Amino acid sequence: MVSVINTVDTSHEDMIHDAQMDYYGTRLATCSSDRSVKIFDVRNGGQILIADLRGHEGPVWQVAWAHPMYGNILASCSYDRKVIIWREENGTWEKSHEHAGHDSSVNSVCWAPHDYGLILACGSSDGAISLLTYTGEGQWEVKKINNAHTIGCNAVSWAPAVVPGSLIDQPSGQKPNYIKRFASGGCDNLIKLWKEEEDGQWKEEQKLEAHSDWVRDVAWAPSIGLPTSTIASCSQDGRVFIWTCDDASGNTWSPKLLHKFNDVVWHVSWSITANILAVSGGDNKVTLWKESVDGQWVCISDVNKGQGSVSASVTEGQQNEQ
Amino acid sequence: MGKKRTTSGEGRERQRLPARRFRIAAPRADSADGGSFFFPLLGLTDRGFSDCPDLKMSRVTTALGGSVLTGRTMHCHLDAPANAISVCRDAAQVVVAGRSIFKIYAIEEEQFVEKLNLRVGRKPSLNLSCADVVWHQMDENLLATAATNGVVVTWNLGRPSRNKQDQLFTEHKRTVNKVCFHPTEAHVLLSGSQDGFMKCFDLRRKDSVSTFSGEATEAGQGRWASLPVAQRCILRILHSFAHGLMRDAESRANEAQESWGCPDYPLGLCSGPQAGQSESVRDVQFSIRDYFTFASTFENGNVQLWDIRRPDRCERMFTAHNGPVFCCDWHPEDRGWLATGGRDKMVKVWDMTTHRAKEMHCVQTIASVARVKWRPECRHHLATCSMMVDHNIYVWDVRRPFVPAAMFEEHRDVTTGIAWRHPHDPSFLLSGSKDSSLCQHLFRDASQPVERANPEGLCYGLFGDLAFAAKESLVAAESGRKPYTGDRRHPIFFKRKLDPAEPFAGLASSALSVFETEPGGGGMRWFVDTAERYALAGRPLAELCDHNAKVARELGRNQVAQTWTMLRIIYCSPGLVPTANLNHSVGKGGSCGLPLMNSFNLKDMAPGLGSETRLDRSKGDTRSDTVLLDSSATLITNEDNEETEGSDVPADYLLGDVEGEEDELYLLDPEHTHPEEPECVLPQEAFPLRHEIVDTPPGPEHLQDKADSPHVSGSEADVASLAPVDSSFSLLSVSHALYDSRLPPDFFSVLVRDMLHFYAEQGDVQMAVSVLIILGERVRKDIDEQTQEHWYTSYIDLLQRFRLWNVSNEVVKLSTSRAVSCLNQASTTLHVNCSHCKRPMSNRGWVCDRCHRCASMCAVCHHVVKGLFVWCQGCSHGGHLQHIMKWLEGSSHCPAGCGHLCEYS
Q1: ipTM of predicted complex
Q2: Which residues of B touch A288 (CB under 8 A)?
Q3: Which terminus of chain A has a lower count of CB atoms within 10 Å, N or C?
């Protein structure tokens, strides 16, 4: 079902914490405890090291690619409390901005949908989330949501750009008035949804409770298809939840347990068409999940078949697939 | 508890013992009831230092076994910032020293209790401004402090008076940064000062025994060799040290007195090297295992290793750090491992046993390293704190040099002193800070950044590939660190299990692999192929549908292919054929249309068609045919066409939103189904005129053949069994009423709309948009514009991600949504230069703001041209189209009079 097409020899000296492919799927950025960020060209199964970015003074937890319409921009966040925005200029990668507004490790970075401009959300262990907005001329404006998650914020993920309300209210031809939203997950076991008010301030819109331990990752599904909003979340408690909201106002979210794993679940990642969810857990295993006709999530693939426990639904899913 | 008191005489032993094994126990009056304090099961043997009368009464050998230290994370407020702390060897008391504080606290279960204030006397003395403090690890009554004015003071807690000050050494000229007791010799004290000297004191003497200069070069130049007196003296010290252990305490003390107390010792010579030449000493530490060795660190980044017997030169010197080396610590177990910390934010671990100091590990911290202390009982752990910026205390595993194993975040200001509470207990750490607090940290309460660290990276790539980075087995890491031995294609690292007992056991590394998933698993190859091969316009609807169905089928997407086929059936009726010509070509059209339709449509038809309905249908069919034929080639009215029976059946089948009686399906007689085939094709008139409609009903004979063949039923079965995987479906038949009565005009549109929603929901926005484009007005009105726009933008975004610019552009062009079609315009920029100054026009107006003239004046009428402006590209003069045309009729020269022979194409 799943086969390795490329093993990237990253030559990182310590653990890799994140790997992200760019918008076109041609480059892979990795970051590691060894304080470096590396960029590889992975076209056609190759693995050419393009850049080795050094500038952080602690383990680098996450990287995020900006939309290519703004150029080649990569953001990285680190244990050293800094967020660095790297930019490729004439073939060389250089530090373009450094944000040092957090009091503790910065755990997650995520670029907003390109429709909003260059906006970066950063979640930190100091419990705050900061939003960096590029205002041109190399300047970044910082907004900070203090105490977003007590003990710390582990993940941030933007909602896709969707125009609020129906088109009937929309004066035609005008630039749509987007409502910016993002989700965050933290050590308070909560997922919170944030919304930008008209005055530009960020306000907590929703608090989603279901996890019984730290939320490790949240992923807002790309909006391809219906205007239903979907968020996947995973936690230290081994559970993965799929949150959906059908109602246009975005107020009622219902969780559905995808699966309870035996170990910490570190990551959830949506396929670009948002119909498959990849989940990686503490057992070094990746599973792929797809919603079946009756609304149940079934495991369609398991890169570590035969290892560990395979739940009934998993087996069933695999049979269906064959 | 197993505590026993002995007099000094009883405890005396004459046998040789390893250096570490002899101890003096001071009275433990304070902790007599604190039996819970842990004492290691060492051979605690009183060696009887009877030369110290003060200590005589208090000599107690304590052998507490079995119990462990207890306590909790706690802190207490000090009156002033601390500069250093040191723990008594009973692990129950801690001394805190600072510029204006010098106190002893008892460490109790729940709190710190102030026990003794050593700052006595009215006058604050600079001697009490402590830079460092050390508590003797053998003698619970003995402390030494280093003062900022260069004085080294020793304190005897056994003194009856309030003032416990014992001796005062005023030999250093500047701040003494560090004092250190010999780990096994009761009377030997070492100090290191800013003035560049290290001094060794015998506490039984009034002044230093030897002085070491940081400036001294390695394997000395013989500065001292020419001084026989000093040489002799040193040799005797050596003698004393070497033999002291095995001797009876008294005789040893006597000899020491004799040798060290050499009255005419040339002190001046001892401090030989001139002050100012030397680098400041930041730390001095006696080696724990090597009796004569101590290490010193310097502001210039050097580390020196000395033999206490040879003050003339250091044994070894090397540059350890870039910038000052603030601290060092010998590993408590591994002889020869020295950890050094510097301003360069690094902690390095050196193996000093080899000929050249070898760097074993290098830990990179966030801020400069002020103190470093090996963690007891944990071979690879050490604690550090910084002197600026960072207030936290970190415990590092030297094998994980980038991530701290633990972090203590209690302090609000710089941590100045750290000490493990007991040399054999790894869980209690004490610290003093500039924020005037004293803390006890419990290791289990520490925040563990490693635990927070995400050991895996996961990313869904564009093409459905997965990049997955995972922690590699530590076993593998230990044995050779070859992550990719063997066949690289197999993710062997997934199978390795971590040893849960020791999650932090070794080097950490990750393996990164990119996985390929099958189409069903999210691969996106089909998307690209489909996007490239689909035909969206420029051909008749039926052809487009057929083409797309074929594409879909070739890519193995049967459901989609089926949908296309049915769309064709729904919207392309033979009745639509506008000309007699086409009507004649019925047979032809059928034969060319059918192969594409394949067995699918047959099968699709089948379930819905009850035998009873057949006649009605054919009736209806005839009717609609006639209607259509009546209507002229161009305009076909909607009302007449929608109602066709065959077509709604597949739609229902697909969408599954109409209740059906399944029983009926099985009653179907294959023969009945075929005659109905032609009727499935529906006329639809809202079709754009540019699309020529060539579709014709399939030939009945042909159908008959197909249906009769057993192959058909076989494929039906196949399809049926396949279907559940992809989509919700229920087989249904359409009630007769539908056929009898006229269907409402939008009957199919609703179904098609649902179908589009279905695809979009499945993530196949490509299908939704393609159908939307191809069907155009037929379905547009049924789907709200916001949704359409959303589909368009989603699809365009996807296309652009796959760099399918041409397809994307085509979609933009074909889209009917205003917001989408203006996308192309929005990104088109027109650059205009002023015709006079040839500079770019920055403003939107007619006036160039550089030359302040109207940019586009008509050369003929001298008015501003606001509409079409024609100009000669040679001289850039021009004007209104009519004017210029008129002008050129008369003259070929430029109307502006520039003399240019204008050329217009």
Answers
A1: 0.83
A2: 466, 517, 521-522
A3: C
